[in-house]
Amino acid sequence: MREDIERVAENTTIMAGIRNGITSAQGLKTSLEMGCSTYVVDTGSRQLVFHPKIYMSRNVNEARVLIGSANLTYGGLISNIEASILLTLDLSQSDDRAFVEELENQIEGMIAEFPDNVLHISDYTAIEDLLVSGRVIDENLVQGPTTSGSAIMRNLDSIPRMRLKTRSIAMPTVSPFQRVSGAQAANALVTPIGVLAPVRERLTLVWKSKPLTRRDLSIPLGENTNPTGSMLFKKGALENIDHRHYFRDEVFAHLDWQFDTAKGREHFERTEGRFQLVLRDVDYGVYSLRMSHNSLTDTKAYDQKNSMTQIHWGSVRELVGNEDLLERTLWLYRARFEADLFVIEID
After folding, report:
1. pLDDT confidence tier of residue 179, bands split at 50, 70 and 90
2. Number of other residues whose CB lies within 10 A of the CB of residue 136
3. Which of 180, 181, 329, 343 could crosslink 276 through cysteines, CB 3.0-4.6 Å?
4. Other residues' Cβ atoms within 10 Å of the Cβ of residue 265
5. What's the start-to-end Cα distance of the chain, in Å?
6. 115 and 109 in contact (C-beta within 8 Å)?
7. Residue 135 shares a structural domain with residue 196
8. 293 and 200 co-located in one domain
């Protein structure tokens, strides 16, 4: 396939969505090596993905457009079961010509309308920046298997592998992406890229917030406003919980809670937990964060059903205190097989 593209590379444009756990540094590097004009589309959110699969070629007389489900990957083009439709368009016909022109105009219009999100990749350093920031993957880092569930009776799963009537093609070997500025990569990486995906399949969702506020993320409105540095665990988007007890007595019950010994603060319980922080589908590593719980149940705040438990942002305050995260949602997960590990995802 590479040889076919190289013959027309100087007239070829490739646009790939990123921040999706699929697009790789190696794929973008190959596009540049072939001489293609290369763009990436970064929506800034895992919940909003650039997802079309359109392949078009044309000359002065004819255009061919393939539209379907297949990604430009080994799985999409070789090993998966996909569905696509191929259109052959006569450019001497006004309807066919208008269809092709509209398709091209949509692509060009997106580049012009969203300059902050549709990025032209001109060199390897730009790809390295995407890799170091966690927005593309390194194909050489093999992720562990992710399961769709668990079972205790092996004999209930007797489905054989489908034997498709297609030609078998070996998957090409992948080389590590050679970084241009190793010092930059060493300073930027907190944990190996791609470590979250295998873990995420072993998590239990225990809380979902409403749209995050300045109070939640410790972002003050004015210079004279002191940031709180913490977030209250409120009811959020969950209906059937009493948030005054839920976090202390259920979500974090197994942690080592200790009463404060400071005078006048003896009713506060304190503990620490390990939290993996994921912002907009980028993994920023695992941090030890403090939590506190007000154990008093005879106060006005308790009667008004205010939050009794909060997390202190501490070492991640600069990461979460970003205005771009306002109005987004926070998901709190508990690892099923590591009792003291939690995941905070904001997207």
Report:
1. low
2. 28
3. 343
4. 12
5. 36
6. no
7. no
8. yes
Claim to verify: residue 193 and residue 96 sit in the same structural domain: no
| Maximum separation of any 2 CA atoms in the chain, in Å | 87
> How far is Cα 76 from Cα 80, in angstroms, rounded to an integer?
6
Q: Which amino acid is at 203?
A: L
Q: Per the confidence metrics, is the pTM higher than 0.85?
A: no
Q: Which domain holds residue 311?
A: 189-346
Cβ density class 97-120: b for 16+ within 10 Å, e for less: eebbeebeeebeeebeeeeeebbe
Residues 89 and 202 in one domain: no
Q: Which helix (H) or strand (E) holds 164?
A: none
Give a yes or no: residue 236 inside a domain. Answer: yes
- Write the pLDDT tens digit of every residue in 51-68: 999 999 999 999 999 999
3-state secondary structure 87-123: EEEECCCHHHHHHHHHHHHHHHHHHHHCCCCEEEECC
**What sign results for the dihedral spanned by CA atoms 74, 78, 82, 87?**
positive
Structure tokens at 33: 């090596």
The label of the residue with tokens 């995420």 reads 200
Local structure of 301: helix, strand or coil: helix
| Dist. CA 239–CA 45, nearest whole Å | 26
- In this structure, what DSSP letter does residue 275 have? E
- Residue recorded with tokens 């004999």: 155
Return d(Cα 111, Cα 123) in angstroms, integer.
18
Closest among 207, 178, 197, 190 to 329, alpha carbons compared: 207
Burial class of residue 192 (count of CB atoms within 10 Å of its CB; 0-12, 13-18, 19+): exposed
